[in-house]
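Entry type: protein chain
Record version: 2
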Amino acid sequence: METARQDTGAGATRYHEVYAQSLKDPVAFWGEAAEAIDWYEKPKTIFDPNLGPYGRWFVGGVCNTCYNAVDRHVLNGRANQPAIIYDSPVTATKRTMTYGDLLQEVRTLAAILRDFGVGKGDRVILYMPMVPEALIGMLACARIGAIHSVVFGGFAAKELATRIDDAKPKVILTASCGIEPGRVVAYKPLLDAAITFASEKPSAVLVLQRPQTQAELIPGRDHDWATLRATALKSGRVAECVQVAATDPLYILYTSGTTGKPKGVVRDNGGHMVALKWTMPNLYDVAPGEVYWAASDVGWVVGHSYIVYAPLLHGCTTILYEGKPIGTPDAGAFWRVIAEHNCVTMFTAPTAFRAIKKEDPDAKHLERYDLTKLRALFLAGERADPDTVMWAERILGVPVIDHWWQTETAWAIAGNPVGLGRLPVKPGSPTVAMPGYDVRIVDEGCHELPANKMGSIVVKLPLPPACLPTLWQQDDRFVESYLHEYPGYYKTADAGFKDEDGYLYIMGRTDDIINVAGHRLSTGGMEEVLASHPNVAECAVIGIKDELKGEVPCGFVVLKAGVDKKPSDIEQEIVKLVRDKIGPVAAFKIAICVNRLPKTRSGKILRGTMKKIADHDPWTMPATIDDPAALDEIDAALKGHGIGGG
């Protein structure tokens, strides 16, 4: 076990007392936290265990998320404070929107959506790049009680189509393109293809035309966003906030890499606001009026929670960055943004820092910038390896804090609560369970395990506010996926252990999800694509360690008998197939043709052992293996592709 390294500046902490209080009397704890939100009607019941699959928070409460994120700050004197700083090195654009500006834009777009018949409970899909209109779109939906579902712009048409069919949106908001370093990604052809594939058709599509690419509009269905906005502004049409129940959905966010019917994580209005507002001072130690930056994408849960909702609910200035950690223009990009905008706290994925470290190991670019306002760096999205954490700490001279959470939870399950008083850091651990999360390590029989013993990580029900109450229109699947295996607990599908101090260590997924640069992707979904190739008889996908992305997928394929194509040609076709079907987000670049896959006598493919070979990790021969020589063949095939260690 690694010993704790006492953080400089880590002093007395209120964490233990606050955490104990949150578990002992969750109703009193979250009832008090709810006082920070403006309600039309306060909740009649803080938690009702008889509603939904495991209970519902703030029952009887009536509220509006947009009002809390925008209107109330304007009414309370923040009209001229920047709400959003848009910084886009890929388009050489910078734009600041005050809370007053934001209110005007959101009220206007909300009125336009209403003109298209969008009302309370209707769904709106956003397929948008990192532009202010994405945030305006989300808030405009929240304003009129519509449910937004943001789909990351890197997903291919088929993936988008499954989400359209599940959410059944009345309207889709999109842009003509997204911009990557060195290339423009046209969104409209992808969206058009997705709508063609989908059996559910939206009645309208609003298109934000960007100068880099003009999208072709389909008459009758597609509308120019800027024209609609100008017309609405000229006539002074606005929409005011609609009152919704605390338990009404705010948004649906589909988990990455799902196959078949996608899993739409539902987020409600009341619990989401209460928990996210609570995290800003207590976990991140940020005050209203300060500048906060989550370098993520609005398509992911981090973007929803910490680019959009939490900073705005708290009255902060949020940075919206359309660029990369390196190459836009160099490995000093993050330092420039922090220095230029006086950012006090940054939150990003370890992948970003691995990329910066690889490009600029001595942090030469840092010498050009003044980062004295920066107080802390938070990392999440995949495991923060101790090397990267310590490198970042050394060059920045501020605490670097790993924390762990999921799309399903909306905020940290485990972290180091800076606002309550920082705890000592143990590299490799995201520290301790956050208030409201009763985290346990259990074996397959749901018996709690002792310290330092690896098992499944579960959370005792009820989950705290903001965590998913269910999946979109799939209560049964929610119970089956998350609550069934360990009765009385939420299954995180992560494996790990707690040490004797209660510090949590996340060791990996217990299912087939791999983590590519913070994006959770299903190996099962990739295997479906590989299996669809006409020459493939059998396949297996594993995640292998990658210094930059955390993990990258590697596909093994067994060809059908009689195939006379060159294996290298088939490997290239398979890589292209995954890119076309799942999208570049999968980072799928390694396909390896093999004669057979190693299996147990009962026919189970030994993916875990294959992964250990590829990762250079020690492994032992599985007792149930059918033919041990099959693993030697995998080792040789990996080495033939420059991977693996024997």
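Comment: Residues 1-10 have pLDDT under 50 and may be disordered.
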